[in-house]
Design goal:
Lambda Exonuclease, Chain A; 40% helix; 283 residues
């Protein structure tokens, strides 16, 4: 059985601060963002970030309960977490690692792998940022192998939890040299470059999907309320709502007509140039 060496670091959940022997240490998130991803989430509205953080915290807590007592959960993401990790031997959650000088952080999941360990970071974001997570896991590997002397990390995984789409993604950690360059040097880690059109469009799509879902939910509540109260119109301080009565409509069945009357259909068909159409889908 593997025994992990405690870090001696105290973690305050309310202030999210790490302290060792009276000295406050920096978490790794700040150095990753400032040195590698300075513009990450810069264009995302605070409401979206706050909602995503709340959802992420909830799922992390439910997963921790699942690993601690093995209880079933009604949460779809937790069920999928159980399926993704059913071949792993759980060892620790939120295991704190430190270099003893500057940095400390909690590793989401540590699993046994013979005489080695597997590290995993849980992500609940709309899309999985593999590069960001790869750097996180690389630092975790670097710190835990120095804190727990003789311990070796065999694999690193991102556990992306999104109902119906959850994935277990293995990520190759960066070298010790690159991690030390990130943590302890002032050498540039990235080249300054403008944000691409693709990155801007990605952010727009994420924001659109957030606000569309919010719009759909709010209008659904108002519509149900108006139907229940037999209202056809309702005026608020800023918006007027009109609810149409149920009705029937007729639609020409072009497919059926063309099959039953191919000659007539062909006679009335006209060719028309169609402009190129761009389809956009997040991956």
């Amino acid at each position: 059985m593997i025994t992990l060496t405690p870090s001696g670091v105290s973690f305050d959940r309310e202030t999210h601060t790490y302290t060792l022997d009276g000295k406050e240490l920096s978490g790794i998130t700040s150095v990753i963002k400032s040195r590698l991803f300075p513009d990450k989430y810069s264009d995302v509205p605070p409401q979206i970030l706050e909602r995503a953080a709340e959802r992420g915290t909830m799922i992390h807590e439910l997963v921790e309960i699942y690993d601690s007592i093995g209880s079933d959960s009604d949460n779809q993401e937790v069920k999928e977490y159980g399926e993704l990790t059913k071949g792993f031997k759980f060892l620790a959650s939120e295991f704190i690692v430190t270099d003893g000088m500057n940095y400390a952080s909690g590793i989401d999941k540590v699993f046994e792998d013979g005489d080695k360990v597997i590290l995993a970071d849980i992500k609940t974001t709309y899309t999985l940022d593999r590069e960001y997570t790869r750097w996180q896991l690389s630092i975790y590997k670097y710190l835990i192998e120095r804190q727990c002397l003789g311990l070796e990390v065999s694999k690193c995984y991102a556990i992306w939890l999104k109902a119906g789409k959850s994935q277990l993604v293995e990520l190759e950690p960066y070298s010790t040299e690159l991690v030390e360059k990130l943590l302890y040097s002032e050498e540039p880690m990235i080249e300054e470059k403008p944000i691409s059109d693709e990155e801007q469009l990605r952010d727009v799509i994420i924001q659109y999907q957030f606000w569309k879902e919010k719009y759909d939910n709010l209008t659904k509540v108002i519509k149900e309320s108006m139907i229940e109260n037999h209202d056809t119109t309702r005026a608020g301080k800023f918006i007027r709502f009109n609810l149409s009565a149920p009705s029937m409509t007729k639609k020409f069945n072009e497919k059926k007509f063309s099959q039953e009357n191919p000659n007539i259909y062909a006679e009335y068909c006209e060719e028309k140039e169609v402009a190129p159409r761009l389809t956009v889908k997040l991956i």
